[in-house]
Amino acid sequence: MTWHVSVLAVRPVGSHFIRVEVGGPGLASFLSLGTPDESVTLYFPRAGESSPPLMTCIDGVWGYHGLPNAPIGRNYTIRSVSPDSLVIDFARHGTGVASNWAENASPGDGLVLWRQRGWYKPPANTDWILLITDLTGLPAVARIVEQHDSPVPIMVRAVEDDPAYLDHPRVLSDDFEPPPGRGYVWFAGETSEARKVRSHWRDVHGFQRDQITAVGYWRAEAENWERRYAAVSTEIERFYQACVDNGDSITVAGEKVEEELARRGL
């Protein structure tokens, strides 16, 4: 399923973010997953366009089939949802197709949205929650904190911070000592760091798979990685689908894909 939306409003939030509200008739069929780290893939206009072309669906698969110079897509957290609009906060990186687009976005500009996903899922017997993130994950952390409605305490370790954006007690020590009880750790940041965090909490603290969610929100040297990934993308997509078909959740399937990519040097 895809949604073609238009920019309704743009404004800065804090020191490092641009808030873009989108909506329009194309959003009428959108149903939020409700997961607080819910993300969606955004496709941006190409050079000379104010809006990207619509996707097509062939054999049940949405995409820009056979389209040369296809629009570029990036995954972003849905910061908030209302019946008529979505809010997405863009970190100001200074470079990159998404950041540059947000810096210059105006009401009426178009985007195509595709593929909602979410990973945050503390087990029912969780005693404490630790959120670890860099700047890119702050929108998801903010939504997690806002939607948290249980007495289980949440701690935040913001590697990069924007106090004007997120006002919440933080765990600032790198030598964090886990409290008693069964914990749940959620991480968002650079992909290689996500792998390290996942391994650390499993190997050092004995966490089970359901106690750690580590999501790669971006990759260092992304263009080089994407060129190398293109050579094996079909195999990896089939591997992911086989995991899902065998009953794995999208979180577990995603972790197995990351393990397979690491095995291949990606």
From TrEMBL:
Pfam families recorded: FAD_binding_9, SIP
Domain FAD-binding FR-type: 1-123
InterPro entries in the cross-refs: FAD-bd_FR_type, FNR_nucleotide-bd, Riboflavin_synthase-like_b-brl, SIP_FAD-bd, SIP_fam, SIP_rossman_dom
Protein name as it appears in the record: Siderophore-interacting protein
Record lineage: Bacteria, Bacillati, Actinomycetota, Actinomycetes, Micromonosporales
